[in-house]
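Quick one: structure for this chain?
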Amino acid sequence: MGYEFVHLAEFAWFKMEPEEGKFEFNWLDKVIALCTKYNLKVLMCTPSAATPAWHNPLAGGWGVYAIHERNKRAQERIQTRCYHAGKTGWAQVKATDMLSNNGKGEILMGPDHYSWNNWADLLVPDKNTETLAVFDNQFYKGKAAVVKHKVGKGIVTYIGVDTDDSRLEQDVLRGIYTGAGATTENYPPGVYVYWRDGFYVAVNYSSDNYTMNMPGTANIIVGEKILQPGGVLVWNE
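Got it. Here's what it folds into:
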């Protein structure tokens, strides 16, 4: 079919190291051998996109974990981990709702109101689970939309609704980071910043320049502090 390259293992950490310190590469050797047989060049990728169960913060009872309703696999993994830890669960999804194109759902978190139209999980929290936000209209007004539960020394936050503008999700995540003692940035639409292996990578998909907020100790490797449209900036600290 004209293929020359294949990339492998970007989601394979859980297969490479199913138990902490125990590595399994037999399956990878077979895949690479098959690629070699058909003259395919292999690009090995960083496997950290899919962490193994033992690396889950809840496995050791530590860490802060946030789950969005769209990530059902993560939801199931967290629930399973809670039950395995001897818990009675932290919340149940009683039902889901999808509004019509003209429908308008409302969420209330503290004094702030948010709108949604895509998808919502109606949550029934455990008695030890804190409700952070509730639905504010429809026949399920008052039902939990976002919940938080302590597991050991860690905290799980579940966002059970998908908003159009992501403002609710941003505010929930900002509260999680602030509560954990971490600072946050409010990047404009189209500007994305990633961190991996000690390096920060920023890209600008918007039509405007953006001046990156960087500490004085930052060492720019690629690009400039003023990130132009279509630009890339790489630095470490």
